[in-house]
Amino acid sequence: MAGPRRGARLVDVAKLAEVSISTVSHVLNGTRYVAPDTRERVRHALEALDYAPPAPMVPKRSGRALGLAITGASNPYFGDLIAGVESEASRAGFALLLCDTHDDTQLEAKAVATLLAHNVEAVIIAPTPGWTETTLPVLRKHNTPFVLVDRMSDVRADQVGTENESVAAALVEHLIEIGHRRIGMLAGLAGLSTTDERRRGYRRAHEAAGIAVDPGLIVDAHSTVTGGRAGVISLLHRPDPPTAIFGANNAMTIGALLALKETHRRIPEDVALVTFDDFEWASAMSPALTAAAQPFHAMGARAVQLLVRRLADPFAPRRIERLPAEIEHRESCGCRAVPPTVAEVSG
Question: Which positions fall inside the HTH lacI-type domain (predicted)?
């Protein structure tokens, strides 16, 4: 008779993903940046092997603590948000425990359960798609106060995020104002409020200008570099390709840059490019990227403030707050260049 099945080990995950054991460890623990494509291979290997990490051995903690469940290592652009949470939590007298959700619903539920097992008083969470089916019941079961950050939900809870729709509309309106009529959009991960809101902004800008939206110009790029690259290549292969592209997050925009380079398209002469989410090095690129800069640090700090308020008064009215993003006009949009004529676009 066969014995009990041995659980998957780190070495098994590393072998399946064709990476080193240390790379798997960095993905699991968020201890170092890992390239998006490599991280995706590790995530698929973890799921395929149903890997369950051992319960962490941590020293006993004295004092109060908050938990943060976010796709941190798998989205390094959340670094400023995490820093905002940490600094405000420290100022309020709380230690911070961080778990990476890797934007995976099941891993998110496990991450929150781990935080609660370490006796955090409350949790800040950037929810994954489908979180209400898996993670919300865990929080409700333990009657744990929580605040949603960056990604909003219909759930009755305190929330803080960015003005996604209006800022996305402003980016696309800018492209329309300088002459573009066929604008592609790289849309993010399905099921996220940020994806839906930025898509609405794209449509709103077209409607305000009296331009019909071509559904074929909106491609699902899944909030990843790989998705952004594939999405741009598919757009460029259309018989009537776009003259401008709106990347709805920075990872997809990196993919767009790779695709435009591979296909020898010049920015902005051949294809203009704007992005939601600013890059730390965006102004140093050539051409410099026109981008919407989110106030991630302020967003993280405000999430802690809302949580401290909730702990002090569990019956306080719910607050949903939107912080403004600032558009950094640089060169990639082409506003300093001559916009394409109708003849150039059609020819």
Answer: 8-68
